[in-house]
Structure formats: C-alpha cells, structure tokens
C-alpha cells in the first residue's frame, strides 16, 4: 500500500516503510491529487483533513502526530469508515517545559518573584496538570478552570473563568472547540482581557483562535497587560505581525516541538497503524532517543535561590530566547515573505531535548532545592553538599 507522511515527522519514513511505499511531503502541500491511490495518511496540524482533501481517495487510515485534532474532521472519517489515531499527550511535557521557561524568563525580565504569585490555568488536561505541578514547585498558587472536568468530577477545585483571570499569570491549555457550551473560539476576548490586571501576563500555547488577537493587541498597546507570551496565532502562517512585534515572547507554534515529543508522536501513530492493519510492529525508535546523555553537567548551586537557579537551568537547556529572536527576524522580511518564513522556522526547527536528557551534578545544593528541581523535571545525577 502507499503511504503519505508529513516531512516534519521524525523517523516517519523509517517507521512506516515496512507497511508500504512511503512518500514524504511538506504538510501544506498535501492535497487530494497527492493522495491518489494512497491508503495511509500521516499528518501534523498544518494539514486540514476533511471532505475536500479525502473525497475520491482510497484512504483507509489517518494518523496525526499531534495532540490537537481540530484540523481533523472526525465525523467525516467515521462516515467513511476510515481509521484514525492521534498522539494525545505525546508532547505534553514539551509544552509544560516551554511554559516553565517562559515564566522564569518573563519573571527575570520584569524582575518578578514568582514565589507566592498565582497562576491561572485554563484547561487542566495532560498539559495543564503538568504545568500546575511545575508552578507549585516554584512556589506559585494555581487557580484551575476547566468546565468539562468540573461537570464530570464535581470537584470544587475548579474556579470560574473570571476568578482565574485575576491571577498574576494566566496560561491557556484548551483544545479548539468551535461550537457548543464549551466553545473556545475567542475564549479570551476584549471582555476577558478587561478582567485581567495591568500587572498580569497571558501565555497561549493552545491554539491561536482561543485568543482574539486584535483584542490582545489593543490591550497591549493600551498597557492593560504587563506582557504576553504567544506561541500560537490566529491565521497561521499569515499572522498579525504587529502583535508579534509587541508581545513579550513570540514563537512560531513550537512549544510542543521538542525532539522527544515529536518522536513520542511517531511511535504512537505508528503503533496505532500497525494495530489497525493487524501487522506486528517492527520499527523501534533509536535506543538513545529516550536515554539521558552520558555527559554530566556540574552546577554549583551555592547561594542561588530556586527561581534564579531554574532560570539558569531552563534557559541553558532550552533556548527560548533564541526561538523568540528567530521569530522576530521575520519582521525584517517583506510582508509577503513572512508566512513562508514562519513555516520554515517550524520545518527547520533545531533539535531541542527535554530536561530529563541532561544529567545534573548539583554541588552545594540543599535537599529542598533538589526536591523542587526533581518536581520540575530536571534529572539530578549526583549531589555534593
């Protein structure tokens, strides 16, 4: 059988080659013509999978190597009896580490102490729970908002959106839901932004349409927010470039783009495809992909408080400010060239490993610091006091 795979899926060709003849294409160039006589389609979020794409094709199985599935018309797949699998949770830790790094970076820039500050978390799924754990390890108080979970569990830990918006920082981790009582289209609009304090920071790593970008731009221009961190944008890749220029940190939809998260996605959809077709899995990810590096990094913790140490470690292991700088470099291009530049930043994204890969030898670290760093996901190899 023939298989078409997005070129940004690591090990995609190697993994699926024993199932059939593999063609690798840029995600935005996958169209109905390229799917002629194709049985399996493996995509990422830039490829809308719907009637327009699949009508008249022989597709029997669709996999998306992403947690989000708003680009997939699942009702249409069900109607056509087409198998489907996603990679929910594959990049949750990658996004949580992005948010952690953004928090300590913004705090450093604005000279804010995060201890005792509040973090409003909108959407408390896999990512939201990880973010909550990391925020609490930093000494922050978390305020949770998730109406579907509140209804399902009856748990009183979930607060109203208005209460969450009073937090010192607000981070969004909801799926894009286009209709119904839990719609998230412009969940954060002019009215909601007006409820936020001028000293607060908004972080969005969910989907661009969850925030009204024009309303956010207006709030920033009127100094109604201290700052904003945006990884996702309305209209990608043709985004609001004035907004990109004005936010505190701007990145091109790469929060979940750690190498580890991407490979997790490949593994999940490969195994799902094998199950669907009744084929025993043969391919395995390279052994060193999930193993910590052999090298050990020595860090002298003496006299550093937790927040300063986390800023040092997080920004050393993940160059968020480099991502921001590369995004802003697109502003030097002609407007017509920026969308292609946005996509190129994603396609050519450098390998970024998650924190667990780098072993840390902490010298002169207290037991409390060690415990907090472990909760934040850092790999503590050895400790000398």
Describe the structure.
This protein is an alpha/beta fold and 385 residues long. It folds into three domains: 2-86 and 258-285, Rossmann fold (3-Layer(aba) Sandwich); 92-250, Rossmann fold (3-Layer(aba) Sandwich); 291-384, Erythronate-4-phosphate dehydrogenase, dimerisation domain (Ribosomal Protein S8, Chain: A, domain 1, 2-Layer Sandwich). The chain is 36% helix and 16% strand. It has helices at 12-16, 51-54, 74-79, 92-110, 126-137, 147-153, 161-164, 190-195, 213-221, 241-246, 259-277, 306-317, 320-329, 338-347, 367-375; strands at 2-6, 21-25, 40-43, 61-64, 83-85, 118-122, 141-145, 169-172, 201-204, 227-230, 249-250, 296-300, 359-363, 379-384. The strands form three sheets. It has a six-stranded parallel beta sheet with strand order 7-6-8-9-10-11. Strands 2-1-3-4-5 form a five-stranded parallel beta sheet. Helix 8 links the parallel strand 8 and strand 9 (201-204). Helix 4 (92-110) packs across helix 12. The longest helix is centred in the first third of the chain and has 19 residues, at 92-110. It starts with a strand and ends with a strand.
Strands side by side in the biggest sheet? 7-6-8-9-10-11
Terminal-residue CA separation: 60 Å
Silhouette: globular
Helix content: 25-40%
CATH hierarchy: architecture of the largest domain? 3-Layer(aba) Sandwich
Count up the domains. Answer: 3
By DSSP (H or I, 4+ residues per run), the number of helices equals: 15
Overall average residue pLDDT:
94
In terms of structural class, how would the helical and strand content be classed? alpha/beta
CATH T-level topology of the largest domain: Rossmann fold
pLDDT < 50 stretches: none
Assembly type of the shown chains? Answer: single chain
The percentage of residues in β strands lies in: 15-25%
Write down how many β-strands occur, each being a DSSP E stretch of 2 or more residues: 14
């Amino acid at each position: 059988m023939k298989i078409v795979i997005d070129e940004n899926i690591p090990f995609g060709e190697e993994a699926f080659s024993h199932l059939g003849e593999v063609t690798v294409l840029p995600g935005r160039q996958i169209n109905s013509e390229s799917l002629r006589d194709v049985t399996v389609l493996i995509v990422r979020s830039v490829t809308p999978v719907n009637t327009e794409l699949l009508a008249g094709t022989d597709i029997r199985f669709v996999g998306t190597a992403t947690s989000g599935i708003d680009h997939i018309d699942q009702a249409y797949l069900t109607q056509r009896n087409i198998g489907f699998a996603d990679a929910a949770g594959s990049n949750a830790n990658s996004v949580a580490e992005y948010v952690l790094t953004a928090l300590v970076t913004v705090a450093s820039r604005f000279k804010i102490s995060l201890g005792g500050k509040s973090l409003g978390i909108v959407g408390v799924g896999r990512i939201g729970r990880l973010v909550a754990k990391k925020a609490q390890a930093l000494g922050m108080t978390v305020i949770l908002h998730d109406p579907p979970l509140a209804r399902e569990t009856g748990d009183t830990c979930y607060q109203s959106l208005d209460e969450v918006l009073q937090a010192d920082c607000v981070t969004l981790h909801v799926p894009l839901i286009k209709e119904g009582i839990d719609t998230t289209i412009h969940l954060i609009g002019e009215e909601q932004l007006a409820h936020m304090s001028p000293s607060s920071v908004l972080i969005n790593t969910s989907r661009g349409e969850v925030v009204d970008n024009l309303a956010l731009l207006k709030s920033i221009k009127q100094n109604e927010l201290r700052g904003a961190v945006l990884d996702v944008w309305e209209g990608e890749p043709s985004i609001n470039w004035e907004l990109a220029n004005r936010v505190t940190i701007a990145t091109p939809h790469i929060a979940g783009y750690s190498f580890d998260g991407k490979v997790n996605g490949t593994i999940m959809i490969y195994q799902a495809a094998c199950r669907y077709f009744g084929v025993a899995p043969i391919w395995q990810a390279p052994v060193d992909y999930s193993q910590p590096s052999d090298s050990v990094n020595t860090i002298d913790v003496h006299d550093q408080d937790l927040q300063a140490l986390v800023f040092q470690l997080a920004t050393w292991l993940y160059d968020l400010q480099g991502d921001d700088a590369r995004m802003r470099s697109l502003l030097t291009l002609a407007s017509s060239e920026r969308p292609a530049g946005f996509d190129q930043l994603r396609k050519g994204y450098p390998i970024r490993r998650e924190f667990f890969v780098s072993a840390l030898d902490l010298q002169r670290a207290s037991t409390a610091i060690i415990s907090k760093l472990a909760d934040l996901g850092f790999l503590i190899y050895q400790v000398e006091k």
